[in-house]
Amino acid sequence: MVPESPAPAWHFTADVGEFLARARDFLHSRPDLYTVHLTVTAQLRLRGPQAYGGEPPFFGFLTRGDGGVAAALLHTPPYALHVTRLAADETEALVERLLALGHPVSGISAERATAEAFVAEWERRTGVPGKLHELQRLYRLAELTPPSPAPEGRARPAGASDRELLVRWYEGFVADAGLRAGRDAGEWADFRLSYGGVTLWETPDGTPVSMAGVTLAVAGQVRVAPVYTPPELRGRGYAGAVTTEVGRAALAAGAAEVLLFADLANPTSNALYQRIGYREVADWAVYDFGEGA
């Protein structure tokens, strides 16, 4: 008699090294779809477990009967739980395990079908409904197409003298995007400056008018984030120009894929990214369950 293979099972850990030892090959198999898991774990390894807030991170991976990894999750409170694509039975098993562990879940971020299935199962089990926070589209740079006409000015890397500006603009971005407070803006600026992770667009007189950040390169991919122009300076082409430049620089540095997320409620940004060469990969959904859920 041939022995039965072990059933698929979720495994959890608070150790990023242990998580990556098991899930690395899975995450590297689709760097575009798993960009958040790749970039967040890279920062946690560099900056320590409190890189995203005071609470410890939480990781999980789903093993198949042959021991291979079929799905992964990460959670850096107070941010949403990030989960890779799941089948219906895998979603049910995950919710059951999280509830059994008593692990608090304030929100879910995943490809849209997975997020919607998780929300439905969470509400069925707990009675707590999910509230849609944002619909996003993940884009990949296909063929870089600089805006025409381009605004006057030039791009330059942000430096230490720009720190106060970066802090202020990052806080503006977080407020505009309705993100949960977790990371200190000063710490964010210091980390990005440490590897040249922010580019500014400045007018001919040297006045910064827009910024675009880029994550660390992991598994051949980088993600453009955040892109921010102060409200009084919008509509002049600065965001398109600076986003084009960070994409160009990433490709020149050897990135195989340049990615970004856009809020589907903002038709202006989605149209802009498509004009400069970004193409759709998948749609995402972010849901909130409320405090204490």
Architecture overview:
Helices cover 36% and strands 27% of the residues. By secondary structure, it is an alpha+beta fold. Strand 2 and strand 3 form a beta hairpin.
Question: What attributes characterize this protein structure?
Answer:
293 residues; alpha+beta; twelve-stranded mixed beta sheet; 8 helices; globular
Give the C-alpha Rg.
Answer: 20 Å
Q: What's the helix-strand series?
A: EHHEEEHEHEEHHEEEHEHE
The biggest sheet amounts to: 12 strands, mixed
Distance between the terminal alpha carbons, to the nearest Å? 46 Å
Low-confidence stretches: none
Assign the structural class, choosing from mainly alpha, mainly beta, alpha/beta, alpha+beta, or little secondary structure: alpha+beta
Tally of separate helices: 8
Strand order of the largest sheet: 1-2-3-4-5-12-6-11-10-9-8-7
Helix content: 25-40%
What percent of residues are in strands? 25-35%
**Shape, please?**
globular
Mean pLDDT: 94
Number of strands: 12
